[in-house]
Amino acid sequence: MQKTYALFDFDGTLIRGDSILLFCLYGKRKGLLSCRGMAYSLWTALLYGLRLCPPVRAKERALSFLAGKSAAEVQAIAEDFVQTILIPRLRPEGLQTIARHREQGHEVLLVSASSYFYLKLLKEVLGVTDIICTRLDVDENGVFAGRVCGENCRGVQKPLRLAEYLAAKGDRLDYESSWAYGDSSGDLPMLRLCGHKVGVNPKPRMWRALRKMEGAERILWSEPDDKP
Fold this sequence. Notes:
By secondary structure, this protein is an alpha/beta fold. The chain is 43% helix and 20% strand. The model has no long low-confidence stretch (mean pLDDT 89).
């Protein structure tokens, strides 16, 4: 069945900044991550920014302090992180835009490179239909292994993962009526799937590419007043 979808990136779009980095900073404040571990995470982020560390490896290094923890422990950590850090940072216009799409009967998906173990806790808060993102591996004993399961959900992986999701549901995305929202060049493959391509506070490289496309627009969403 052909349907209208609204696709939303998370980091840099619905919140300012990178939620993985925010999670590492949270881990440092909570004593989950040592000073050495934090330095390791920041060094990894620098290497990733210089394209000297592959995305999957960078994510595994950044979240390595979770390895060996039970699923229940990680769940408790994620719940506090979402409540105290992520929810207060959600951009009001983003929430309003999601609500508007839902009122119009659109299927709303969060499509993100960030990790499922905490993004799943935002499903009801955001009001999205479903979440497509990067997952971390859990072994047969329910212990986090510290490895990314599959590929990092960024760039071309976004439309590939979306195609798998739609095939499983027996749906087809209506190009003309569907919307996609993102902020960086890593979101461009997803935005190209939709007739309405929206750059949210877009990075320069992303906007240079996006503005050459039909159906593209640039919008600016403000930060919440009580952002931590």
